[in-house]
């Protein structure tokens, strides 16, 4: 009589190749179908990749990814009593890690010297990426945020204007992207901005500003449904939470750009950082890109004429050594984006894009 072994039933079936535990496969990597259904360690089920969202707040960034078919898991946040420093992510479970880390230290509106919190939280973000080992990561912050290099990932900076994705406000959002296979996200903009009247930007301090817009109007301005509600939060806290968020249409564009990511060797991107693809003969994609670059050069020249070191340099001087993760050199927080070449590179081998 044949012995029945229940333990044996759980064993790997012959002919099905094993995926080493914790190994992350990039988007588009070949995975035998049987792994998707049975034992994929990276949740590569088509249409439902797992994404970890750090510093989520009410997570408009994550909402955009959900709307594009991702399953978003939210990390701890101070507004819910959580602390990222006590958080650890399982290795190999998440396809991506996204975050809009605290930006006050890097904000132009800041009058006091930076507290160090901004850099400390960038370092926490990098630590979690190293722990989780996702295929890719996105970091959203203000334009003056330093470069964040994480060993094993490429690095790319992008500026995105909500009006290019159907929104009615011109609040530029700044993103950094890393990919383990060095892939480049392909951002698709609307061909025309339409005749929509551009509105005053949504900001965190909206509730105390003169001419405050109504709650439904403010939610709609950020890409949320007019019926959106945040029960249990004060009026000021609700406006702050929504005003701090990434516009939902921008978040959706970022999620789609991730799904459409391509090999870095196959595309060249505009020098201005807009993420547009350019031909071999071009350096910049549009007339607006050329104007933007000129404005940056003029601004840098004005700063040096006035002897003003600028916000970014102030941050750099306050933290001359940047931040390194546990002394192993896995993470480097570099200088500012402005006035530097934008860097794209394969894993571990960053190279200049220009
Ligand atoms: Zn451009």
Offer a concise description of the structure.
This protein is α/β, with parallel strands linked by helices and 354 residues long. It has a domain at 31-192 and 241-267: Rossmann fold (3-Layer(aba) Sandwich), CATH 3.40.50.150. The chain contains 9 helices and 14 strands.
SSE map:
Elements: H1 6-9, H2 33-38, E1 50-54, H3 60-67, E2 71-74, E3 96-100, H4 117-132, E4 136-141, E5 148-150, E6 156-160, E7 173-179, E8 183-184, H5 215-221, H6 235-244, H7 248-259, E9 262-263, E10 268-269, E11 277-278, H8 287-306, H9 310-318, E12 331-333, E13 343-346, E14 349-352
Parallel strand pairs: 1-2, 1-3, 3-4
Antiparallel strand pairs: 4-7, 5-12, 6-7, 8-9, 10-11, 13-14
Helix pairs in contact: 3-7
Residues 270, 272, 274, 276, 284-285, 289 line the site of zinc ion.
Describe the structure.
With 354 residues, the protein is an alpha/beta fold. The protein is 26% helix and 15% strand. It has a domain of 189 residues: Vaccinia Virus protein VP39 (Rossmann fold, 3-Layer(aba) Sandwich), CATH 3.40.50.150. The protein has 9 helices and 14 strands. The strands form 5 sheets. Strands 2-1-3-4-7-6 form a 6-stranded mixed sheet, with helices on both faces. A two-stranded antiparallel ribbon has the order 5-12. Helix 3 crosses helix 7. Zinc ion binds next to loops.
